[in-house]
Protein backbone atom coordinates (compact mmCIF):
# COMPACT_ATOMS: atom_id res chain seq x y z
CA UNK A 1 0.00 0.00 0.00
CA UNK A 2 2.66 2.41 1.23
CA UNK A 3 4.91 1.91 -1.78
CA UNK A 4 2.03 2.56 -4.17
CA UNK A 5 1.45 5.91 -2.55
CA UNK A 6 5.14 6.77 -2.72
CA UNK A 7 5.19 5.87 -6.41
CA UNK A 8 2.04 7.80 -7.03
CA UNK A 9 3.42 10.81 -5.18
CA UNK A 10 6.76 10.82 -6.93
CA UNK A 11 5.06 10.40 -10.30
CA UNK A 12 2.84 13.36 -9.51
CA UNK A 13 5.79 15.44 -8.41
CA UNK A 14 7.63 14.62 -11.66
CA UNK A 15 4.56 15.70 -13.56
CA UNK A 16 4.42 18.97 -11.64
CA UNK A 17 8.12 19.66 -12.17
CA UNK A 18 7.81 18.84 -15.86
CA UNK A 19 4.92 21.20 -16.25
CA UNK A 20 6.79 23.97 -14.45
CA UNK A 21 9.92 23.38 -16.49
CA UNK A 22 8.34 23.03 -19.92
CA UNK A 23 5.38 25.39 -20.00
CA UNK A 24 5.28 28.13 -17.39
CA UNK A 25 1.80 29.58 -17.21
CA UNK A 26 1.55 33.26 -18.10
CA UNK A 27 1.13 35.29 -14.93
CA UNK A 28 -1.93 37.21 -16.04
CA UNK A 29 -2.60 38.14 -12.41
CA UNK A 30 0.42 40.37 -12.30
CA UNK A 31 -0.11 41.83 -15.72
CA UNK A 32 -3.54 43.29 -15.33
CA UNK A 33 -4.61 41.52 -18.49
CA UNK A 34 -2.01 42.88 -20.91
CA UNK A 35 1.56 42.14 -21.76
CA UNK A 36 3.28 45.06 -20.08
CA UNK A 37 2.83 45.48 -16.36
CA UNK A 38 5.16 48.49 -16.04
CA UNK A 39 6.01 47.40 -12.49
CA UNK A 40 2.37 47.42 -11.49
CA UNK A 41 0.62 44.81 -9.38
CA UNK A 42 -2.76 44.06 -7.82
CA UNK A 43 -3.44 45.63 -4.45
CA UNK A 44 -6.56 45.39 -2.29
CA UNK A 45 -8.41 48.72 -2.07
CA UNK A 46 -11.52 47.46 -0.26
CA UNK A 47 -12.51 44.28 1.58
CA UNK A 48 -15.30 42.90 3.71
CA UNK A 49 -14.60 39.89 5.93
CA UNK A 50 -16.51 36.89 4.54
CA UNK A 51 -18.62 35.02 7.08
CA UNK A 52 -21.52 32.60 7.19
CA UNK A 53 -24.65 34.76 7.13
CA UNK A 54 -26.77 33.95 10.19
CA UNK A 55 -30.46 33.12 9.52
CA UNK A 56 -31.60 36.53 10.81
CA UNK A 57 -29.35 38.31 8.30
CA UNK A 58 -30.44 36.37 5.21
CA UNK A 59 -32.54 38.44 2.81
CA UNK A 60 -36.25 38.70 3.65
CA UNK A 61 -38.83 36.56 1.86
CA UNK A 62 -39.55 36.30 -1.01
CA UNK A 63 -35.81 36.59 -1.78
CA UNK A 64 -35.23 33.76 0.65
CA UNK A 65 -37.28 30.93 -0.84
CA UNK A 66 -38.01 27.38 0.15
CA UNK A 67 -34.92 25.82 -1.43
CA UNK A 68 -32.68 28.68 -2.44
CA UNK A 69 -31.67 32.21 -1.63
CA UNK A 70 -31.62 35.08 -4.17
CA UNK A 71 -33.54 33.15 -6.87
CA UNK A 72 -33.95 35.36 -9.99
CA UNK A 73 -32.51 38.29 -8.01
CA UNK A 74 -30.35 41.32 -8.71
CA UNK A 75 -28.33 42.51 -5.70
CA UNK A 76 -27.12 46.12 -5.90
CA UNK A 77 -24.38 46.99 -3.40
CA UNK A 78 -22.06 49.94 -2.83
CA UNK A 79 -18.58 50.08 -1.32
CA UNK A 80 -16.08 52.85 -0.72
CA UNK A 81 -12.68 52.15 -2.28
CA UNK A 82 -9.53 53.41 -0.58
CA UNK A 83 -7.27 54.46 -3.44
CA UNK A 84 -7.35 55.83 -6.99
CA UNK A 85 -7.04 53.16 -9.67
CA UNK A 86 -7.55 53.20 -13.43
CA UNK A 87 -8.21 49.49 -13.52
CA UNK A 88 -9.91 47.27 -10.94
CA UNK A 89 -11.05 43.72 -10.38
CA UNK A 90 -13.45 42.06 -7.93
CA UNK A 91 -13.36 39.05 -5.67
CA UNK A 92 -16.64 37.23 -5.01
CA UNK A 93 -16.60 34.74 -2.15
CA UNK A 94 -18.42 31.48 -1.59
CA UNK A 95 -16.19 30.72 1.42
CA UNK A 96 -19.05 29.45 3.58
CA UNK A 97 -21.28 28.03 0.84
CA UNK A 98 -21.89 24.28 0.85
CA UNK A 99 -23.26 24.39 -2.71
CA UNK A 100 -22.02 26.11 -5.84
CA UNK A 101 -22.62 29.83 -6.05
CA UNK A 102 -23.73 30.44 -9.63
CA UNK A 103 -23.26 34.05 -10.61
CA UNK A 104 -25.15 34.87 -13.83
CA UNK A 105 -23.88 38.39 -14.51
CA UNK A 106 -22.04 41.24 -12.78
CA UNK A 107 -21.40 44.90 -13.57
CA UNK A 108 -19.77 47.87 -11.89
CA UNK A 109 -20.98 51.47 -12.14
CA UNK A 110 -20.50 54.88 -10.63
CA UNK A 111 -23.38 56.28 -8.58
CA UNK A 112 -25.17 59.55 -9.32
CA UNK A 113 -24.18 61.34 -6.13
CA UNK A 114 -21.05 59.37 -5.23
CA UNK A 115 -22.82 58.32 -2.04
CA UNK A 116 -22.90 54.95 -0.32
CA UNK A 117 -26.18 53.11 0.08
CA UNK A 118 -27.86 54.53 -3.03
CA UNK A 119 -29.52 52.60 -5.84
CA UNK A 120 -29.08 54.98 -8.80
CA UNK A 121 -26.36 54.52 -11.40
CA UNK A 122 -24.62 57.36 -13.23
CA UNK A 123 -25.83 56.75 -16.81
CA UNK A 124 -23.17 55.51 -19.19
CA UNK A 125 -20.77 54.52 -16.44
CA UNK A 126 -21.56 50.78 -16.32
CA UNK A 127 -18.91 48.20 -17.22
CA UNK A 128 -19.60 44.49 -17.49
CA UNK A 129 -17.50 42.31 -15.17
CA UNK A 130 -16.24 39.02 -16.63
CA UNK A 131 -14.64 35.96 -15.10
CA UNK A 132 -12.04 34.18 -17.24
CA UNK A 133 -13.69 35.80 -20.27
CA UNK A 134 -17.18 34.55 -19.37
CA UNK A 135 -20.06 36.69 -18.14
CA UNK A 136 -21.11 34.01 -15.65
CA UNK A 137 -19.24 31.79 -13.24
CA UNK A 138 -20.01 28.89 -10.97
CA UNK A 139 -17.99 29.15 -7.74
CA UNK A 140 -17.58 25.82 -5.90
CA UNK A 141 -18.35 25.51 -2.20
CA UNK A 142 -15.71 27.27 -0.08
CA UNK A 143 -14.34 28.81 -3.28
CA UNK A 144 -13.57 32.25 -4.61
CA UNK A 145 -13.83 33.97 -7.99
CA UNK A 146 -11.51 36.73 -9.16
CA UNK A 147 -12.83 38.82 -12.04
CA UNK A 148 -10.92 39.76 -15.15
CA UNK A 149 -9.35 43.25 -15.03
CA UNK A 150 -11.97 45.95 -15.64
CA UNK A 151 -11.01 49.18 -17.39
CA UNK A 152 -12.92 51.24 -14.87
CA UNK A 153 -11.44 54.22 -13.09
CA UNK A 154 -12.12 54.82 -9.41
CA UNK A 155 -10.95 57.61 -7.16
CA UNK A 156 -9.82 57.38 -3.56
CA UNK A 157 -12.83 57.38 -1.22
CA UNK A 158 -15.27 57.16 -4.12
CA UNK A 159 -18.27 54.86 -4.15
CA UNK A 160 -18.32 51.82 -6.42
CA UNK A 161 -21.69 50.25 -7.21
CA UNK A 162 -21.72 46.50 -7.88
CA UNK A 163 -24.67 44.67 -9.45
CA UNK A 164 -24.86 40.88 -9.21
CA UNK A 165 -27.61 38.83 -10.84
CA UNK A 166 -28.31 35.23 -9.80
CA UNK A 167 -30.67 33.52 -12.20
CA UNK A 168 -31.18 30.43 -10.05
CA UNK A 169 -30.07 31.69 -6.65
CA UNK A 170 -27.90 29.60 -4.38
CA UNK A 171 -29.22 26.27 -3.14
CA UNK A 172 -29.50 25.80 0.59
CA UNK A 173 -29.04 28.47 3.18
CA UNK A 174 -25.26 28.62 3.62
CA UNK A 175 -24.72 32.08 2.16
CA UNK A 176 -21.44 34.00 2.39
CA UNK A 177 -21.64 37.66 3.19
CA UNK A 178 -20.85 40.43 5.60
CA UNK A 179 -23.89 41.33 7.70
CA UNK A 180 -22.28 44.35 9.41
CA UNK A 181 -22.00 46.39 6.21
CA UNK A 182 -23.40 49.58 7.73
CA UNK A 183 -24.30 50.27 4.13
CA UNK A 184 -27.67 49.90 2.43
CA UNK A 185 -27.96 47.32 -0.37
CA UNK A 186 -30.92 46.76 -2.69
CA UNK A 187 -32.48 43.55 -3.98
CA UNK A 188 -35.01 43.11 -6.76
CA UNK A 189 -36.40 40.23 -8.83
CA UNK A 190 -35.21 39.76 -12.41
CA UNK A 191 -32.05 40.86 -14.19
CA UNK A 192 -31.54 44.61 -13.69
CA UNK A 193 -27.76 44.65 -13.97
CA UNK A 194 -26.64 48.09 -15.14
CA UNK A 195 -30.16 49.60 -15.14
CA UNK A 196 -30.15 53.19 -14.01
CA UNK A 197 -32.57 52.97 -11.09
CA UNK A 198 -33.49 49.76 -9.37
CA UNK A 199 -36.15 51.63 -7.44
CA UNK A 200 -38.32 52.20 -10.54
CA UNK A 201 -38.75 48.47 -10.95
CA UNK A 202 -41.80 48.21 -8.74
CA UNK A 203 -42.65 47.22 -5.25
CA UNK A 204 -40.46 44.14 -5.20
CA UNK A 205 -37.36 46.23 -4.49
CA UNK A 206 -36.22 45.91 -0.91
CA UNK A 207 -33.36 47.51 0.90
CA UNK A 208 -31.25 45.69 3.43
CA UNK A 209 -28.20 46.67 5.47
CA UNK A 210 -25.93 43.76 4.62
CA UNK A 211 -23.40 42.80 1.98
CA UNK A 212 -23.46 39.46 0.20
CA UNK A 213 -20.71 37.64 -1.75
CA UNK A 214 -18.52 40.71 -2.43
CA UNK A 215 -15.24 40.30 -0.57
CA UNK A 216 -12.61 42.51 -2.25
CA UNK A 217 -11.94 45.21 -4.80
CA UNK A 218 -8.39 45.38 -6.10
CA UNK A 219 -6.59 48.12 -8.00
CA UNK A 220 -3.76 47.66 -10.50
CA UNK A 221 -1.19 49.97 -8.98
CA UNK A 222 2.48 50.90 -8.76
CA UNK A 223 4.73 48.41 -7.05
CA UNK A 224 5.29 50.74 -4.08
CA UNK A 225 1.54 50.80 -3.39
CA UNK A 226 0.65 48.17 -0.79
CA UNK A 227 -2.23 47.12 1.41
CA UNK A 228 -2.72 47.00 5.18
CA UNK A 229 -5.02 44.29 6.55
CA UNK A 230 -6.78 44.93 9.86
CA UNK A 231 -8.10 41.90 11.76
CA UNK A 232 -10.78 43.07 14.15
CA UNK A 233 -14.18 42.88 15.79
CA UNK A 234 -17.18 45.25 15.98
CA UNK A 235 -15.03 48.23 16.97
CA UNK A 236 -13.20 47.92 13.63
CA UNK A 237 -16.35 46.83 11.76
CA UNK A 238 -17.78 50.21 12.78
CA UNK A 239 -20.46 49.63 15.40
CA UNK A 240 -21.18 53.18 16.57
CA UNK A 241 -20.29 54.70 13.18
CA UNK A 242 -22.91 56.17 10.83
CA UNK A 243 -24.70 53.99 8.28
CA UNK A 244 -23.70 54.90 4.70
CA UNK A 245 -21.14 57.48 5.90
CA UNK A 246 -18.03 55.29 5.97
CA UNK A 247 -16.71 56.73 9.22
CA UNK A 248 -15.40 53.55 10.81
CA UNK A 249 -11.91 54.15 12.23
CA UNK A 250 -10.12 52.39 9.32
CA UNK A 251 -12.02 54.64 6.85
CA UNK A 252 -10.79 57.69 8.75
CA UNK A 253 -7.21 56.36 8.75
CA UNK A 254 -7.48 55.75 4.98
CA UNK A 255 -8.50 59.39 4.55
CA UNK A 256 -5.52 60.50 6.63
CA UNK A 257 -3.18 58.33 4.51
CA UNK A 258 -4.57 59.81 1.31
CA UNK A 259 -4.03 63.36 2.57
CA UNK A 260 -0.39 62.70 3.47
CA UNK A 261 2.07 63.31 0.64
CA UNK A 262 5.04 61.90 2.53
CA UNK A 263 4.00 58.27 2.78
CA UNK A 264 3.46 55.74 0.00
CA UNK A 265 -0.12 54.89 -0.92
CA UNK A 266 -1.63 52.18 1.30
CA UNK A 267 -4.99 50.47 0.73
CA UNK A 268 -6.72 49.56 3.98
CA UNK A 269 -8.42 46.16 4.14
CA UNK A 270 -11.04 46.06 6.89
CA UNK A 271 -11.19 42.38 7.89
CA UNK A 272 -13.39 42.74 10.94
CA UNK A 273 -16.78 41.53 12.10
CA UNK A 274 -18.97 42.25 15.09
CA UNK A 275 -18.64 39.68 17.88
CA UNK A 276 -15.50 38.17 16.36
CA UNK A 277 -13.15 36.37 18.73
CA UNK A 278 -9.51 35.33 18.49
CA UNK A 279 -10.10 31.83 19.86
CA UNK A 280 -13.71 30.81 19.24
CA UNK A 281 -16.12 30.82 16.31
CA UNK A 282 -19.43 32.59 16.64
CA UNK A 283 -20.00 35.72 14.64
CA UNK A 284 -17.51 34.83 11.96
CA UNK A 285 -14.72 32.29 12.26
CA UNK A 286 -12.11 32.77 14.98
CA UNK A 287 -9.14 34.97 14.08
CA UNK A 288 -6.60 32.13 14.32
CA UNK A 289 -8.52 30.27 11.60
CA UNK A 290 -9.15 33.16 9.26
CA UNK A 291 -5.68 34.72 9.04
CA UNK A 292 -4.84 32.77 5.88
CA UNK A 293 -7.90 33.91 3.95
CA UNK A 294 -8.30 37.40 5.36
CA UNK A 295 -4.65 38.46 5.48
CA UNK A 296 -2.20 36.12 3.73
CA UNK A 297 -4.33 35.51 0.63
CA UNK A 298 -5.11 39.19 0.05
CA UNK A 299 -3.35 41.15 -2.69
CA UNK A 300 -0.37 43.41 -2.03
CA UNK A 301 -0.37 43.06 1.77
CA UNK A 302 2.76 44.53 3.33
CA UNK A 303 1.29 45.52 6.71
CA UNK A 304 -1.25 43.89 8.98
CA UNK A 305 -2.49 44.27 12.53
CA UNK A 306 -4.89 42.76 15.03
CA UNK A 307 -7.24 44.63 17.35
CA UNK A 308 -9.23 41.89 19.08
CA UNK A 309 -9.61 40.10 22.36
CA UNK A 310 -12.43 42.04 23.98
CA UNK A 311 -15.01 39.40 23.01
CA UNK A 312 -12.77 36.55 24.15
CA UNK A 313 -12.39 38.21 27.56
CA UNK A 314 -16.00 39.35 27.75
CA UNK A 315 -17.62 36.04 26.78
CA UNK A 316 -15.38 33.96 29.11
CA UNK A 317 -16.70 33.48 32.65
CA UNK A 318 -15.55 36.25 34.95
CA UNK A 319 -14.11 34.07 37.74
CA UNK A 320 -10.32 34.36 38.27
CA UNK A 321 -9.53 30.85 36.97
CA UNK A 322 -11.46 31.27 33.70
CA UNK A 323 -9.94 34.69 33.18
CA UNK A 324 -6.39 33.43 33.82
CA UNK A 325 -6.99 30.70 31.23
CA UNK A 326 -8.44 32.98 28.58
CA UNK A 327 -5.59 35.44 29.14
CA UNK A 328 -3.01 32.66 28.63
CA UNK A 329 -4.77 31.50 25.47
CA UNK A 330 -5.08 34.98 23.97
CA UNK A 331 -1.36 35.62 24.48
CA UNK A 332 -0.41 32.29 22.87
CA UNK A 333 -2.76 32.92 19.94
CA UNK A 334 -1.37 36.43 19.37
CA UNK A 335 2.15 35.00 19.27
CA UNK A 336 1.05 32.29 16.86
CA UNK A 337 -0.67 34.76 14.55
CA UNK A 338 2.36 37.09 14.63
CA UNK A 339 4.65 34.23 13.65
CA UNK A 340 2.48 33.20 10.71
CA UNK A 341 1.93 36.70 9.38
CA UNK A 342 5.56 37.76 9.75
CA UNK A 343 6.73 34.56 7.98
CA UNK A 344 4.91 35.88 4.92
CA UNK A 345 7.13 38.98 5.00
CA UNK A 346 4.35 41.18 6.37
CA UNK A 347 5.02 43.76 9.07
CA UNK A 348 2.61 42.87 11.88
CA UNK A 349 1.29 45.00 14.71
CA UNK A 350 -1.31 44.90 17.45
CA UNK A 351 -3.54 47.42 19.15
CA UNK A 352 -4.21 47.38 22.88
CA UNK A 353 -7.75 46.42 23.94
CA UNK A 354 -9.89 49.43 24.79
CA UNK A 355 -11.87 49.60 28.05
CA UNK A 356 -15.35 48.20 28.66
CA UNK A 357 -15.96 49.03 32.32
CA UNK A 358 -19.23 50.53 33.51
CA UNK A 359 -18.74 54.09 34.82
CA UNK A 360 -19.88 54.40 38.47
CA UNK A 361 -22.64 56.92 37.70
CA UNK A 362 -24.08 55.03 34.70
CA UNK A 363 -27.65 53.75 34.44
CA UNK A 364 -26.48 51.04 31.96
CA UNK A 365 -24.28 48.13 33.02
CA UNK A 366 -21.97 46.94 30.26
CA UNK A 367 -22.36 43.12 30.39
CA UNK A 368 -18.61 42.52 29.91
CA UNK A 369 -17.54 44.77 32.78
CA UNK A 370 -16.04 43.04 35.80
CA UNK A 371 -13.00 43.41 38.01
CA UNK A 372 -11.46 40.11 36.85
CA UNK A 373 -12.00 40.86 33.16
CA UNK A 374 -10.29 44.21 33.65
CA UNK A 375 -7.32 42.31 35.12
CA UNK A 376 -7.16 40.18 31.96
CA UNK A 377 -7.44 43.24 29.69
CA UNK A 378 -4.54 44.91 31.52
CA UNK A 379 -2.51 41.71 31.35
CA UNK A 380 -3.02 41.28 27.58
CA UNK A 381 -2.34 44.97 26.99
CA UNK A 382 0.91 44.78 28.94
CA UNK A 383 1.91 41.81 26.82
CA UNK A 384 1.10 43.74 23.61
CA UNK A 385 2.97 46.84 24.77
CA UNK A 386 6.06 45.15 26.19
CA UNK A 387 6.64 41.70 24.78
CA UNK A 388 8.33 42.72 21.56
CA UNK A 389 6.65 40.16 19.30
CA UNK A 390 4.99 42.89 17.25
CA UNK A 391 6.62 45.11 14.64
CA UNK A 392 4.46 48.00 15.83
CA UNK A 393 2.13 48.64 18.76
CA UNK A 394 -0.87 50.95 18.60
CA UNK A 395 -2.06 52.03 22.03
CA UNK A 396 -5.78 52.46 21.31
CA UNK A 397 -6.49 51.87 25.00
CA UNK A 398 -4.55 55.00 25.92
CA UNK A 399 -6.39 57.01 23.22
CA UNK A 400 -9.89 55.96 24.29
CA UNK A 401 -9.74 55.47 28.08
CA UNK A 402 -10.66 57.98 30.74
CA UNK A 403 -7.36 59.14 32.32
CA UNK A 404 -9.17 59.46 35.69
CA UNK A 405 -10.53 55.89 35.57
CA UNK A 406 -8.57 53.77 33.13
CA UNK A 407 -11.11 50.94 33.19
CA UNK A 408 -13.73 52.99 31.31
CA UNK A 409 -14.04 54.77 27.98
CA UNK A 410 -13.69 58.53 28.07
CA UNK A 411 -17.29 59.77 28.23
CA UNK A 412 -16.97 61.90 25.08
CA UNK A 413 -15.89 58.79 23.09
CA UNK A 414 -18.57 56.45 24.49
CA UNK A 415 -21.33 55.44 22.07
CA UNK A 416 -23.48 54.70 25.12
CA UNK A 417 -22.84 51.01 25.76
CA UNK A 418 -19.43 51.70 27.42
CA UNK A 419 -17.74 49.36 24.91
CA UNK A 420 -18.09 50.78 21.40
CA UNK A 421 -16.61 54.20 20.69
CA UNK A 422 -18.72 56.81 18.89
CA UNK A 423 -17.57 58.67 15.77
CA UNK A 424 -15.54 61.11 17.92
CA UNK A 425 -13.74 58.09 19.38
CA UNK A 426 -13.10 56.65 15.91
CA UNK A 427 -11.75 60.03 14.83
CA UNK A 428 -9.48 60.09 17.90
CA UNK A 429 -8.01 56.73 16.82
CA UNK A 430 -7.37 58.09 13.32
CA UNK A 431 -5.85 61.32 14.67
CA UNK A 432 -3.49 59.28 16.84
CA UNK A 433 -2.69 56.64 14.20
CA UNK A 434 1.06 57.02 13.41
CA UNK A 435 1.45 56.88 9.63
CA UNK A 436 5.23 56.66 9.89
CA UNK A 437 4.89 52.94 10.55
CA UNK A 438 4.34 52.71 6.76
CA UNK A 439 7.73 54.29 5.97
C1 LIG B 1 -0.84 47.76 -20.67
O1 LIG B 1 -0.80 48.19 -19.33
C2 LIG B 1 0.10 49.23 -19.09
C3 LIG B 1 0.12 49.48 -17.61
O2 LIG B 1 -1.18 49.60 -17.11
C4 LIG B 1 -0.34 50.46 -19.89
O3 LIG B 1 0.56 51.51 -19.69
C5 LIG B 1 -0.40 50.10 -21.37
O4 LIG B 1 -0.90 51.18 -22.10
C6 LIG B 1 -1.28 48.88 -21.57
N1 LIG B 1 -1.18 48.47 -22.98
C7 LIG B 1 -2.22 48.10 -23.70
C8 LIG B 1 -1.92 47.67 -25.11
O5 LIG B 1 -3.37 48.13 -23.26
C1 LIG C 1 -24.84 25.71 -10.32
O1 LIG C 1 -23.92 25.25 -11.28
C2 LIG C 1 -23.56 23.89 -11.07
C3 LIG C 1 -22.41 23.57 -12.00
O2 LIG C 1 -22.52 24.26 -13.20
C4 LIG C 1 -24.79 23.03 -11.25
O3 LIG C 1 -24.46 21.66 -11.07
C5 LIG C 1 -25.85 23.45 -10.24
O4 LIG C 1 -27.05 22.75 -10.45
C6 LIG C 1 -26.13 24.92 -10.34
N1 LIG C 1 -26.96 25.34 -9.23
C7 LIG C 1 -28.07 26.02 -9.39
C8 LIG C 1 -28.80 26.41 -8.15
O5 LIG C 1 -28.51 26.34 -10.48
C1 LIG D 1 -38.03 36.81 -12.55
O1 LIG D 1 -38.70 37.91 -11.95
C2 LIG D 1 -39.47 38.67 -12.86
C3 LIG D 1 -40.00 39.86 -12.09
O2 LIG D 1 -40.74 39.47 -10.98
C4 LIG D 1 -40.56 37.82 -13.45
O3 LIG D 1 -41.29 38.57 -14.40
C5 LIG D 1 -39.92 36.62 -14.13
O4 LIG D 1 -40.92 35.75 -14.62
C6 LIG D 1 -39.03 35.88 -13.16
N1 LIG D 1 -38.32 34.83 -13.87
C7 LIG D 1 -38.32 33.58 -13.46
C8 LIG D 1 -37.57 32.63 -14.32
O5 LIG D 1 -38.88 33.23 -12.42
C1 LIG E 1 -29.64 56.78 31.01
O1 LIG E 1 -29.55 58.17 31.25
C2 LIG E 1 -29.51 58.96 30.08
C3 LIG E 1 -29.35 60.41 30.50
O2 LIG E 1 -28.28 60.54 31.37
C4 LIG E 1 -30.78 58.77 29.27
O3 LIG E 1 -30.69 59.49 28.07
C5 LIG E 1 -30.95 57.29 28.95
O4 LIG E 1 -32.16 57.08 28.31
C6 LIG E 1 -30.89 56.47 30.23
N1 LIG E 1 -30.89 55.07 29.86
C7 LIG E 1 -31.59 54.16 30.51
C8 LIG E 1 -31.42 52.76 30.03
O5 LIG E 1 -32.31 54.43 31.44
From TrEMBL:
Signal peptide: 1-22
Pfam families reported in the protein's UniProt record: Lipase_GDSL
Keywords: Signal
This protein's record includes keyword Metal-binding: no
Coiled-coil residue spans: none
GO function terms (MF aspect): hydrolase activity, acting on ester bonds
Name of the protein: Uncharacterized protein
Amino acid sequence: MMSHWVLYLSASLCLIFNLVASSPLPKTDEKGGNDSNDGQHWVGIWTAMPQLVEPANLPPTPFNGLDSVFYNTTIRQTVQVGLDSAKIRLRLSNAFGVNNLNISSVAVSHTMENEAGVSTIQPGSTKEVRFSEQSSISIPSAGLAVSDPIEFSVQAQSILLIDIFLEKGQDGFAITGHPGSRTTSFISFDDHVGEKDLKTNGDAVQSIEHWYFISAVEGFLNSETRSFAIVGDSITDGRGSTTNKNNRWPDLVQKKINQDEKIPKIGILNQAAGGNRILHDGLGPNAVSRIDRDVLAQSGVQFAMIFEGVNDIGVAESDPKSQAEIGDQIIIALRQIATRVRTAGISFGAATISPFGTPPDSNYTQPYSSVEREVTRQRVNNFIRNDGVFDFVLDFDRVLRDPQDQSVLLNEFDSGDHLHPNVAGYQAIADYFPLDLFL
